[in-house]
Amino acid sequence: MIFRNLARAIYALSMEGAHGFRLLTDTRDVKDQSQVSPDGRWIAFHANESGRFEIYVATFPAFTDKRQVSGAGGLQPMWRSDGKELNGRLMALPVKTEPTLQTGAPSALFATRIRPTHASQYAVAAGGQRFLVMEPERTAGEPLTFILDWTARLKQK
Predict the structure, then answer these.
(1) Within 13 Å, how many C-alpha atoms sit on residue 89's CB side?
(2) What is the average pLDDT across 141-153?
(3) Span 93-97, mean pLDDT?
């Protein structure tokens, strides 16, 4: 389990064996939305150390070999279930984690209205083909679309 305290330190709590807290990093800049890769070797997070939020990846649990993997801002990174892609700000970044971390060029997936927050606002289905996105409240006059019988559409695919 990964968590952050209000003083901006990131900790890991082992769910196996001895259940002690381990400090991963403690810096003056904000680091948040930490996600451990499916193979357990890497941790992705967003941080504002450059002056704006960007996505970073570091080794886990050592929290070394840290590198910035976004270039135009980024929030809320999330690993695809197979660990071959890192999604952030609904951009996709191809990732290879063996033998060392290698990243490809980011590509835009689709537009959303998610905003910076301490809570995850989206989830990625296995394979990265479907997303569940929590968007902010709509303003008056904005169209609202209802999809009826959506379960039948799922069966068609």
Answers:
(1) 17
(2) 75
(3) 83
C-alpha span between 73 and 53 (Å, rounded): 5
Say if CB 53 and CB 71 are below 8 A apart.
Answer: no
Residue 87 and residue 136: Cα distance in Å, rounded? 20
Residue 10 has pLDDT above 80, yes or no: no
Query: 7-15: which pairs have CB atoms within 8 A and are 24 or more residues apart?
Result: 10/34, 10/45, 10/63, 12/60, 12/61
Domains of the chain, each with CATH number or no CATH: 2-138 (2.120.10.30)
87 Cβ contact partners less than 8 Å away, ≥ 6 residues apart:
77, 78, 79, 80, 93, 109, 122, 124, 128
Averaged pLDDT, 54-81 = 85
> What digits encode the pLDDT tens for the residues 108-144?
777 777 766 666 777 777 777 788 877 766 666 677 6
- Any idea which residue has 């799922």 for tokens? 154
φ and ψ at residue 56, rounded to 5 degrees: -125, 155
Q: What is the pLDDT of residue 96?
A: 85
Quick check: 101 and 95 in contact, CB under 8 A?
yes
